[in-house]
Amino acid sequence: MAYILRKLGFLVFTLWVAATLNFILPRLVPGDPVGAMLAKYQGKLDPSAVDALKIAYGLNDQGSMFSQYVKYLGNLLQGDFGRSISQFPTPVMDIVKMAAPWTIGLVGVTTILSFLLGSALGLYSAWRRGKPLADAMPPLALFLNSMPYMWFGLVLLYVLAFKNSIFPLGNALDPFLKFGTPEWWSSMLRHAILPALTILITSAGGWLITMRNNVMSVMGEDYIAFARAKGLSERRLLNRYVLRNALLPSFTAFGMAIGFVIGGSILTEVVFSYPGLGLQLNNAVQTLDYPLMQALFLFIALAVLLANFIVDLMYVYIDPRVRDGKAT
User: Fold this and answer.
1) Do the domain assignments include residue 328?
2) Confidence of residue 37 (pLDDT cuts 50, 70, 90)
3) Cα–Cα distance for residue pair 149/261, rounded to 1 Å
4) Which pLDDT score is estimated for 323?
5) 91 in helix, strand or coil?
6) Are residues 154 and 209 in the same domain?
7) Nearest one of 292, 265, 285 to 276, comparing CA atoms
8) Domain shared by 68 and 99, yes or no
9) Could you give the number of structural domains in the chain?
10) Are 205 and 288 members of one domain?
């Protein structure tokens, strides 16, 4: 319990730091949301409209920076991130709610699948090393893992969508489909295959290399040689000793890799015009939509922190030393 409380405290503290940086950094950048709106409308807004915009974005507050910070935190706790500049007057939270399910579905499913696939192939590559297929996997995985998400996505898009029309060129759905119908699900899956393959293939190579190295390291331990000397079968040796101990470092890497996967998914969504948080973030940067950028950065930080917290909770059940309070 002390371990969980410590990790929960770290989660809350880190989220507070991220929220604070999210408050400070935009105020260090020249200009403000109202200035961006004036540029968008080429100065055609009358003074009353400018005053209304300042009120909407909280820029009419003449109080101290600390009072603005307290108000900012209060708005965050209420889920109020202000109104989007590029999609004014739509609340930022409404945009996030519409985009988040697409990113969560794409990144969540592909991250878990790539971890399972890469770990299974890495286990096979290490356990059966010396065989042609097992020895061919590491260099191929290293090549795939070194490819940028955007480049690989463009290759898939060109070959499978543009040249051969096997999959759609972009977006997440065909138009005019009713939600929940078989046609809707079929269209959603067809549009998701190429973005999912981009993330799955490029990230699975990294898990293969990681798992292979972990397995080979475990197989060099003295207790593995002792278990073999006792006459344990290869299957029992693999399941009871090798796999369990090789997975522990992979779980740690899984939590840390979430941030890189989310970063890659942002580029992937841009390539495929997939209407998730990544595409919204790209549009927000291009249009200088500061409120939307702030919200998206904070949600990405929250996703990474929650993923790491879940991994820490899983450690309680995987590693006996954590349950007994002998590991941190």
Assistant:
1) no
2) low
3) 9
4) 57
5) strand
6) yes
7) 265
8) no
9) 2
10) yes
Domain span at residue 65 reads 11-77
Query: Each residue of 236-271: pLDDT tens digit?
Result: 887 777 887 887 777 777 777 776 677 767 788 888
- Which DSSP category does 162 fall into? I
Tokens matching residue 8: 């929960």
pLDDT at site 244? 78
Which carries the bigger pLDDT value, residue 157 or residue 41?
157
Total H helices, total E strands in the chain? 14, 0
In this predicted structure, the answer to whether residue 327 has a pLDDT above a threshold of 60 is no
pLDDT of residue 294: 83
Looking at the structure, tell me whether residues 231 and 267 fall in a common domain.
Answer: yes
Closest residue by Cα to residue 307 from 121, 122, 115, 153: 115
Asked if residue 159 belongs to a domain, the reply is: yes
Residue 101 sits in the same domain as residue 233: yes
Nearest to 110 by CA among 152, 80, 73: 152
Nearest to 123 by CA among 237, 214, 240, 245: 214
Average pLDDT value over all residues in the chain? 80
CATH of the domain at 263: 1.10.3720.10
Peptide bond before residue 89 is cis, with ω within 30 degrees of 0? yes
Q: How many CB atoms lie within 10 A of CB 149?
A: 24
* Residue 247 contacts residue 157 (beta carbons within 8 Å): no
Same domain, 262 and 130: yes
